[in-house]
Design goal:
By secondary structure, this protein is of the alpha+beta class. Helix content is 36%, strand content 19%. It has two domains: 36 residues; 185 residues, NADH Oxidase.
Length: 244
């Protein structure tokens, strides 16, 4: 005990204890904060909702802007199942077909609380990363060109798009293809991504949600954030939300 009193004696020791105490508080706070990001158990899909197929095609359009209102659990659940959920549990088949039945397309869901990965087997969104990265992974639109024949007039400014409540990044894990060259696997992955993308677009058209498929995104940042492997390719992203 005498030795302990000697170690924590004097102004320098007091400052050291203060730093240690602050570090402990920060660590505990950070740990508690991370624990707040929990899996989201999704509802079973409502397979009776939405417009008839041909009518959905007639209203399908790429949205430019979204309300920042959070998606309801019902809409989020049906959206993920429509995108690439299991529709035939007895044989484990999905709503989106894939080359060689590889199911290579993973859905990373960026929301204000963090990033989640869709798990079709458990019908849930599993937390991957804490924090809001939606506006960081998609660059702002480029400036519009100057009016023809006028080199002095500044180009018109594009309106700043709102942040959608949900941003789905479609990533193909090409290592799931059993055969094929890397180039061929990447081609299959791009095709499979397009199928999932179309599912998202059609679901949104049929249910009144707004979306658009986009290839524009910061792939390097996405790779670092999600810790992707070389065989994982972020091909597209889908902002999804309600009409503004």
């Amino acid at each position: 005990m005498k030795h302990a009193r000697f170690l924590f004696h004097g102004p320098a020791a007091v400052r050291t204890l203060g730093v240690l105490a602050a570090a402990v508080v920060f660590f505990l706070s950070a740990a508690g904060w991370c624990l707040e990001l929990k899996p989201i158990k999704l509802n079973q899909p409502d397979k009776k909702r939405g417009l008839p197929f041909m009518e959905a095609l007639s209203v399908k359009a790429s949205a430019q802007d979204w309300s920042e209102k959070d998606l309801s659990l019902e809409d989020l659940s049906d959206l993920m199942w429509a995108a690439n959920g299991i529709n035939r549990p007895d044989v484990k088949k999905y709503t989106a077909s894939s080359a060689m039945n590889a199911h290579d397309v993973d859905l990373y869901v960026f929301m204000k609380d963090g990033v989640f990965l869709y798990d079709a087997d458990t019908n849930s969104l599993n937390p991957i990363l804490q924090g809001d990265f939606r506006s960081e992974i998609v660059p702002p639109p480029p400036p519009r060109p100057r009016p023809a024949g006028d080199s002095t007039q500044a180009p018109p400014k594009r309106p700043t798009p709102s942040t959608p409540p949900v941003l789905i990044v479609l990533v193909s894990e090409t290592a799931r293809f059993r055969v094929g060259s890397p180039e061929l696997k990447q081609e299959w992955g791009a095709i499979d991504t397009g199928i999932v993308s179309q599912n998202i677009s059609l679901f949104c058209a049929a249910t009144g949600l707004k979306t658009r498929p986009r290839a524009s995104m910061d792939r390097d940042k996405i790779r670092k954030l999600l810790n992707l492997k070389e065989t994982q390719y972020p091909f597209l992203n889908h902002p999804v939300g309600y009409a503004k």
